[in-house]
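Worked example 4.2. Below are the chains of a multi-component assembly; read each line carefully before continuing.
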Amino acid sequence: TAGITQAPTSQILAAGRSMTLRCTQDMRHNAMYWYRQDLGLGLRLIHYSNTAGTTGKGEVPDGYSVSRANTDDFPLTLASAVPSQTSVYFCASSDSGTGGDTQYFGPGTRLTVL
Amino acid sequence: GQNIDQPTEMTATEGAIVQINCTYQTSGFNGLFWYQQHAGEAPTFLSYNVLDGLEEKGRFSSFLSRSKGYSYLLLKELQMKDSASYLCAVMDSNYQLIWGAGTKLIIKP
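Applying the procedure described above to all two chains together yields the following structure tokens:
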């Protein structure tokens, strides 16, 4: 079982360009999440989805958008990238998104915005 | 505000025991998680505590005191492969995880 896959593995992007980070899970989990991880900071939640067709904003949603058309896929889009969006992006999923629910992480996408 | 505190870095010797502390202040509490993250890799789940006390899982144990807002992760019989960052995260009242910055553990031979 692949678990969670993310693409691309890494990317260098010019400021002002748009980009979509892809995330796919094969565990039939209801909940999915996007985090960014920056040096010296904890993981910060960007957006989440508790079930297909619904999304919600996390701690740092500005400049990002998501969609959840089906259970498996949860793409993250940067409409107009800025250098402060340089980070490592992790997608995660969990069974239900409620108490005690373990989140499982994809391998991450390392994004550099110049 | 919500806050998770853990030491930035710790050093220990192969074969020894190390305790990594985590204190938290969050809006509500629905459990505390510990994850391990090797450099350049994704976080992987280690343990979950929702009730006070000690949870043991092989060489790793995790303790929780809800009244003190405190947890620790205990690693025994340290191995070189345990060199990694250890992340403490609390699930708040909205069932969202609030993450600490992580503790980088360096194991020396």
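Take a moment to check your reading of the output against the notes. The first strand of chain A starts at residue 4 and ends at 7. The CA atoms of residues 24 and 86 of chain A lie 22 Å apart.
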